[in-house]
Amino acid sequence: MARYNYTHAARRLMADAVVLWIHGTQETAAHLAGLSAECALKSILVGLGVVEPGADGQLGLLNRPLRTHIDRLWGEFQAQLQGRGGSAYLKLLPVGVPPPFDSWRVEHRYVAQRQLAPHDLERWMWVAIAISRVLEVAADQKEAQ
Question: How far is the CA of 78 from the CAs of 16, 23, 89, 119, 140, in angstroms?
């Protein structure tokens, strides 16, 4: 059985996203960047002990609101850390209105080139890069899974 490791998945997905972006495949790159950001936030939640993973490392069924993609996880992550020890990570995250991943969808894996707005693709990439830096801070503090 494969074991979930959100930190490694976040790093791998972000590295792949950057390579794809450089080679002109922005839609796929931004999609992977969103998945990377999702894994990074889940890694921090697990690392802080805010949620308990199941035996395979995946977020358990009791954490159903957090078993979602970045477009919804962004708000859930912030709600989970408000007033907790890990709230310092919230200050490291990019702030924006609307939320940075509000129009990102997991279904975007099916879109053709130039079907998504270039400014959305760039925003998702830059925010995912910023989140990957937050993950590295958490990993250095041993607060990432």
Answer: 26, 33, 9, 24, 21
